[in-house]
Design goal:
The protein is an all-alpha fold and 184 residues long. 68% of the residues lie in helices and 2% in strands. It has a single domain (14-181), classed as Arp2/3 complex 21 kDa subunit ARPC3, CATH 1.10.1760.
């Protein structure tokens, strides 16, 4: 009798736990696209997507944080209305805001990589990691916005970053605190 069980991959409890949390962060990011918080000093409301992207990176670390955002993006590409405003489909990824979605995956990886090497118990350090991740989101987003919408870089910054700065600053403060208090 031949034992074929050695070819079956074995997942330890920690891997399964990370898979569950990656799926949970993908779902929270999708829900976060629908939660709009008006900001009194500007016309653009804050959504909770960026909070969940940055928390996924810092709490799940680079691999699983990026995977969680890949799951989120794939859900939207296949047609589930998980992107901002209930949008979905591959066209969103190639449209003016698609760079932000790519930036979500890259940011979760960058924030997670930093957290792997420096820890996550320090609120100030978490805020620095999250600010770096936000910079990654902005970089990818502004580049694609400028190219697709045929804007100058300054016009893309004015449209794709400036209205969100105050809300994203508040997001970083909240996220840095949450990440310092809870471990996955």
């Amino acid at each position: 009798m031949v034992d074929n069980t050695s070819s079956i991959p074995s997942h330890n409890a920690q891997d399964i736990r990370k898979m569950v949390f990656a799926s949970l962060f993908a779902a929270m990011t999708a829900v976060g696209a629908y939660i709009k918080i008006p900001i009194p000093v500007g016309p653009v409301p804050l959504t909770l997507q960026v909070l969940f992207v940055l928390l996924a990176g810092i709490m799940l670390k680079s691999k699983w944080g990026a995977i969680s955002m890949l799951i989120y993006v794939l859900l939207g590409i296949v047609g589930l209305p998980v992107f901002a405003g209930g949008a979905s489909g591959p066209g969103v990824l190639f449209g003016p805001t698609g760079g932000y979605l790519v930036g979500f995956m890259a940011a979760a990886f960058v924030v997670g990589f930093a957290a792997e090497h420096k820890g996550t118990s320090n609120v100030l350090l978490n805020a620095v990691f999250m600010a770096a991740g936000l910079g990654v989101i902005y970089l990818f987003g502004v580049i694609q916005l400028a190219v697709v919408a045929k804007l100058t870089v300054m016009q893309a910054i004015a449209a794709g970053i400036l209205p969100f700065l105050i809300g994203d600053f508040m997001t970083i403060i909240a996220g840095a605190y949450i990440a310092s208090r809870y471990k996955i």
